[in-house]
Specification:
The complex is a heterodimer of chains A (251) and B (412). Helix content of chain A is 17%, strand content 45%. In chain A, helix 1 packs antiparallel against helix 4. Chain A folds into two domains: 113 residues, Proliferating Cell Nuclear Antigen; 113 residues, DNA Polymerase III, Chain A, domain 2, CATH 3.10.150.10. Chain A is an alpha+beta fold and 251 residues long. Chain B is an alpha/beta fold. Chain B folds into four domains: 138 residues, P-loop containing nucleotide triphosphate hydrolases (Rossmann fold), CATH 3.40.50; 62 residues, Helicase, Ruva Protein, domain 3, CATH 1.10.8.60; 97 residues, no CATH class; 68 residues. In chain B, 57% of the residues lie in helices and 8% in strands. Chain B is built from 20 helices and seven strands. A five-stranded parallel β-sheet of chain B has the order 2-3-4-1-5, sandwiched between helices. Chain B has a two-stranded parallel ribbon with strand order 6-7. In chain B, helix 8 crosses helix 9 and helix 18 packs antiparallel against helix 19. Chain B is globular, with a radius of gyration of 26 Å. The chains are: A alpha+beta (251), B alpha/beta (412).
């Protein structure tokens, strides 16, 4: 049993939207410390690691650790009904096993939706040594990714101590986007050694677009031909991190 | 896993050494996967094919487990369209692993890709194979379907054969040991032989007969007649119509070796005899009607994701309909009469349509309409007026077979 309440429904909606990029069904873990989710997309090239400590919520009660699996896109439909400054409350009806979503503001709505059988799979944290760490504004990043998306479906990200370069090469067109260290978009950059790796633009763009609703600043960490870690700094406490596997390059 | 977990899942081989039979095919498969360590081979995909229930999918899972590869899998129902194939298989086969290992991508149940709407799907799979950076495994019952002709060129074909009864028996024996069941040798032999190499159905049979028992004797199994494929469907129907849980009824679908539409017909045919309480029957028929509504939506929109609702309604929906009906003795399951009727008249309908085409060319109406509206009159003419009939036959360019059909006389 649990009951959690949030004064700003938009915060929850934006978070669920960001999670929905990767998965259709997701298993949330709810315990004394807070709300957690870790899941991989069906093709297993991307992973989301999300955590909200209970202090993020305005009200948080649990009796025992609970696992709850739900259809994310269905949940999102309901959450989208919540307007600005409305209060959302989630609770699990133990008898029916259904999730209750209560939205109160101008008027009160009480939705119920079924929970699914929770998956047993535990997703481990990728163990990677990162050589590059870059701090950028989500707005700047999302602009750069949009530029790259015009010409290709994947992008090579390169960095040294001076700049972060996005290199996209399509069948016919190409694009090079350079972010200089200390510019408006790139707040900080550290590289132990120059590194480069290529990633899927469809996932990158969606992740950055949706996550930027929850965060202004993102930290990118990567190494040559290794997965990239995108950490989106949360306004309150909490964690929203994505991992993306690199494209296997043939040359 | 609960008490009623399917033994096919519970006792699934975790290593290739436990997979029943097909040693040569498996060796070929392992050699090919290992050849990736030396660089990308010429054929970037294998196509495992063979009859259902003989361990094709299980072999891939066991291999991934043995070689510690990351296993990425999807069923055909999840990747019917070109975009879906690119999104899933394209990403999975061109991108690395988050955890640093090697991966193997499985596209299962390719037979499920049917119809024109899925043409893009097969083509997209071909594209994905061309640019793949990791081993891709395709699985279908029949690799020689014309739909796969182009696709086959890019695949190493490996045939899985039905394992001999002795091998199947060994597997059953292992399961009995793990379940703590003392089984008579000849009882297991009987089940193994009856399965005709279908390991999955043999294990299902074993579970149906032996679960909860301490001993399994020849008498326990001998009353089962000799196997034909309908036996499996009977077990499936029993699980659905007499199912106590939604999960159990739903799982029955995985055991069935008929497609969803056929299974629907089976359930539809047999529900009235088994649910004698009218209120129960109403509930079951309502569920089936809902399933049919979704079948209709699949047909009209080609959105196969509705399949899940079809399955839920026709299995769980029917299982939950039973509230008042008392279990009453042995009621046999019947073959769907609708399918029988359709298959009996299949040749006739084909002939009618062929004549319809001939009429179409002369009368400028659709062949379908011609066969329904004009053909009956032709029949009357051909049976009563040979002279006019001869003229008509010449004008319509009918062949001998057609004339014979219209006159209703094979000799002339």
């Amino acid at each position: 049993m649990f009951k959690i309440k949030m004064a700003d429904a938009k915060l929850l909606r934006d978070m669920v939207t960001a999670i929905s990029i990767l998965v259709d069904e997701a298993t949330f873990k709810i315990d004394q410390k807070g709300l957690k989710l870790r899941a991989m997309d069906p093709s297993r090239v991307a992973m989301v690691d999300f955590e909200w400590p209970k202090t993020v919520f305005d009200e948080y009660t649990t009796t025992e650790p609970t696992k709850m699996c739900i259809n994310i896109s269905e949940m999102l439909k309901l959450l989208k009904r919540a307007g600005k400054d409305e209060v959302v409350e989630l609770s699990l009806d133990e008898k029916t096993g259904k999730l209750q979503i209560k939205i109160t503001g101008k008027y009160a709505r009480n939705f119920t939706m079924p929970t699914l059988e929770a998956s047993e799979e535990e997703v481990p944290t990728p163990k990677i040594t990162f050589n590059v760490k870059a701090k950028a504004t989500t707005q700047g990043l999302s602009q750069a990714i949009e530029d790259a998306q015009l010409v290709s479906d994947h992008v090579r990200i390169e960095a040294d101590n001076e700049k972060l370069v996005l290199n996209a090469a399509g069948d016919l067109m190409g694009a090079t986007i350079t972010l200089q260290k200390g510019s408006d978009a790139l707040l900080d950059l550290e590289a132990k050694e120059p590194s480069k790796a290529t990633f899927s633009l469809s996932y990158l763009s969606e992740i950055i677009k949706e996550a930027s609703a929850t965060s202004d600043i993102a930290t990118l960490e990567f190494s040559t031909d290794m997965p990239i870690k995108l950490d989106f700094q949360q306004a309150k406490e909490g964690k929203l991190t994505f991992y993306l596997a690199p494209r296997i390059e043939t040359e | 896993m609960g008490l009623y977990a399917a033994w096919t899942l519970k006792h699934k081989p975790k290593s290739l050494t436990e997979v029943v039979g097909n040693k040569d095919a498996i060796q070929k498969f392992v050699d090919w996967v290992k050849s990736w360590e030396k660089g990308i081979p010429k054929k970037k995909a294998v196509f495992l094919y063979g009859p259902p229930g003989i361990g094709k999918t299980v072999s891939v899972e066991a291999l991934a487990n043995d070689l510690r590869m990351e296993f990425v899998e999807k069923n055909a129902s999840d990747y019917r369209t070109e975009d879906a194939v690119h999104h899933f298989a394209g990403l999975a086969s061109q991108y690395g692993s988050l955890f640093g290992g090697r991966r193997i991508v499985l596209l299962d149940e390719l037979d499920g890709l049917t119809g024109t709407a899925d043409k893009g799907g097969v083509k997209a799979i071909t594209d994905v194979i061309k640019s793949a950076q990791c081993p891709i495994v395709l699985i279908a019952n029949n690799a020689y379907d014309p739909r796969f002709s182009e696709l086959r060129n890019y695949c190493l074909l490996i045939e899985f054969k039905k394992p001999p009864a002795g091998e199947v028996m060994k597997h059953l024996k292992r399961i009995c040991e793990r379940e703590g069941i003392q089984a008579e040798e000849n009882a297991l032999k009987f089940i193994a032989q009856r399965s005709e190499g279908d390991v999955r159905s043999a294990v299902n049979d074993l579970q149906a007969l032996a679960q909860g028992k301490e001993k399994l004797t020849y008498e326990d199994v001998s009353w089962l007649g000799y196997r034909d494929r309908q036996d499996t469907i009977f077990n499936v129907l029993r699980m659905i119509i007499y199912g106590r849980t939604c999960m159990g009824a739903k799982q029955a679908v995985d055991m069935a070796d008929v497609d969803i539409d056929m299974l629907f017909e089976w359930i539809y045919e047999n529900v009235p005899a088994h649910l004698t309480d009218p209120h129960d029957l109403v509930r079951a028929m309502n569920a089936l009607a809902m399933a049919d509504v979704y079948r209709g939506r699949i047909r009209s929109t080609q959105d196969w994701s509705f399949t899940r609702y079809v399955i839920d309604y026709m299995t769980a929906g029917v299982a939950m309909a039973r509230k008042n009906t008392k279990p009453g003795g042995w009621i046999p399951f019947k073959f769907p009469t609708r399918i029988q009727a359709l298959s009996r008249s299949k040749a006739e309908r084909a002939m009618q349509l062929k004549i319809g085409y001939k009429i179409k060319q002369k009368c400028h109406i659709s062949a379908n309409r011609a066969s329904k509206e004009i053909l009956p009159y032709l029949k009357i003419i051909f049976r009563n007026n040979a002279e006019t009939a001869a003229g008509l036959a010449k004008w319509l360019d009918l062949d001998l077979e057609m004339v014979e059909y219209l006159t209703g006389n094979k000799e002339r």
